Amino acid sequence: MRGIVFLGERRLEVRDFPDPTPGPCEVVVEMKASGMCGSDLTPYRQPADQVLPIIRGHEPCGVVVERGSAVADDEAPIGQRVMVHHYSGCGRCKYCLVGYSQLCLHGHFVYGANAHGGHARYMLVKPSMLVPLDEALSFEEGAAISCGTGTAYLALKRLDVSGRDTLVIFGQGPVGLSGTMLAKAMGARVIAVDLSLERLEMAQQFGADEAIDARESDPVQVVRELTHGEGADATLDCTGQPQARVNAVRSARTWGRVCFVGEGNTTTFDVSPDIIHKQLTIHGSWTFSSVGQAECARFVIDRRLPLARLLTQRFSIGQAEEAYKLFDTQTTGKGVFVDF
């Protein structure tokens, strides 16, 4: 099989790998869709000596095609449509047992980061990583839920977003756009912030009530103008950028809630006036549990949300270089590999 490997410094190649054979406690999933995520851009851009030579892709979705001898029939039925929760841990600690294997007390693997991921025809996983995919969702939608959309959903749950809230979302890439769509379904008034006019237009198509171009306006000031001088009830940073995080904190009202999901970087806050004296609650939210992944999929189905509209580009593995060059412009919706 062929798999996409990052070489660093915005270079990649498609390499040949042997088709995986499952061990006794493993399962092989044939990929039907493997999404591209903003966090992929970090290893894509990194210096070459910092990049692991593994198959990338941590938004896998496909069909079970083979299982090991110790895997029960009902754990991984052949032909079952599945999303993949892209982490594995010890399987026994208190975090693994509730589906948060990325918090494993004994160490964990992130598939597509330090273990082979989904940008190839086949992926070798543990049965505990499988999340059934309802027929109401396409494989592409399942791939989106497997990281970006699921991440936005659990962040909104952490923020306890409802129809009482004005919510500001910084960054309207695939995670932020998902947040906009989901928060509107939860009843919130949504203010979208980005540097890309293309992404702001998409945010409005997904229901954003207001869109702020952070290149042209101070988003903190505009948010205050839109909220009677008080600030937003809740803010969500999907960028990981230092200034956006500061703006998320400063845009929140007194007693407001803030959540960070964007990875990387270091940020400095003026703690007393911006946080302590405003009585802020600040959350960090790292993706989701396998249970939360299934819950997000059910939410999308039950609300008939147009998640498919988030997927704006589709590629074959052979188009990997073109795909990541386009995604690196950060002007598009979600790209997904569908031909392996």
Question: In a nutshell, what does this entry contain?
Answer:
By secondary structure, this protein is α/β, with parallel strands linked by helices. It contains eleven helices and 17 strands.
* Uncertain stretches of 5 or more adjacent residues: none
Total helix count?
11
In N-to-C order, the SSE pattern is EEEHEEEHEEEHHEHEHEHEHEHEHEHE
Please, how many domains?
2
Structural class comes to alpha/beta
The CATH class of the largest domain is identified as Alpha Beta
Q: Mind summarizing the main beta sheet?
A: 7 strands, mixed
- CATH level 4 superfamily of the largest domain: Medium-chain alcohol dehydrogenases, catalytic domain
| Strand percentage | 25-35%
Query: How would you describe the shape?
Result: globular
Q: What Rg is obtained from the alpha carbons, in whole angstroms?
A: 20 Å
Fill in the CATH topology of the largest domain.
Answer: Quinone Oxidoreductase, Chain A, domain 1
* E-strand count: 17
Q: N- to C-terminal separation? A: 8 Å
